[in-house]
Amino acid sequence: MTNMETGAGSAAATAAAADIRQNPYKADFPLLATKPEIAFLDSGATAQRPACVLDAQRRFYETMNANPLRGLYSLSVEATEAIADVRAQVARLLGAVDERGRAQASDVIFTRNASESLNLVAKSFAPCVLEPGDEVAITIMEHHSNLIPWQQACRAAGATLVYLYPDAEGRITREEIAAKVGPRTKIVACAHVSNVLGVENPVCALADAVHAHGGYLVVDGAQSVPHMSVDVRQLGADFFAFSAHKALGPMGIGVLWGRHELLDEMPPMLTGGEMIDSVTEQDAVWAPVPEKFEAGTQDAAGIYATGAALTYLTETVGYEEVASREAALVAYTMERLAELPYIDVISPSEAAAHHGVISFNVRGIHPHDVASILDMDGVCIRAGHHCAQPLLTWLGVENLACCRASLAFYNDAEDVDRFIDGLKTVWSTFHA
Questions:
Q1: Which of 52, 128, 380, 387 is catalytic?
Q2: In CATH, what number does 2-49+319-430 get?
């Protein structure tokens, strides 16, 4: 941890933050528009939803409510086509296109969340390639959703789980990669962006290292898709997972993209309706990808609304605007935190490395108390272990808990100012 100090970057941060006094986006988000007393700084846990997403979910039920894939009547066909359109939209979002630029939609699987997507890879793909003596490499900063499944997969296969550790600034170095990814490494699984440190991991370098030994790369994109454009081909990913609800979409929708040849060889994790080609009394033949992995009735309205969310994110706002605005917000927040000598910000020290996430503690005050007092002023942050207990243990964070402010493009400088004022109240409450 580092105690933030005001330095030469302050003037630049202030200049960069000039436009965040204006906010053209809050009016698009009903909860933020109707509750102006709230400063929502917990988008790393779940994003707010713009009205177009809420409208899309309602529109599905009002205009095309039918079970997709199962009916030949027009409502069912329309619902089926709506899901197919979003599947293709997600493929294009992730850069999963062929040489002619056509979306490879069949490589996109809809799940309940990123956790289920990662479990699907660990439970269905890992047993196909892991053998006793093999290694799975992950970073110490993984969310439990990309850690516990690999613990289980290694235990089942007799493989070893190997951890990569960052340097003092939260970076996984090339030296660490070379030391930990070798001939025994069958799978590397890593977060694209850490949900605690906010750092972007060197996914391309990890891909090169594991592919050099014939292994596979699994990327948890839950914290990257809301903030930056993604190209799975450029990253070198073999599998890529994310959740809709962190990217302005509804809860209960996840995505798994995988290389088609790998998905084709994997067995399904769930079985039941709609994921079969044929069934006899004693056997079944699976449907092709992606239906093979989508047993039962999907949340069609949620998938449809996810399409609206991604359209808003990428077209109405655009990733360039998201990146520039969030960078200014983080820089301004770091500058304001530096005014408070009792705040310990968890590395990295450079604002540009945080990608919307700033984790910190108020010296001598439990994070739960900090969050509760901030809530009295309408400021919403996260406090706890953030589903990253091994990371906090390795960092030596007291009580295995810290505070986290996670910003999105729909925040503004006023939200940050209220956050800082709230922290002053926290400190004065305990030091009257």
A1: 387
A2: 3.90.1150.10
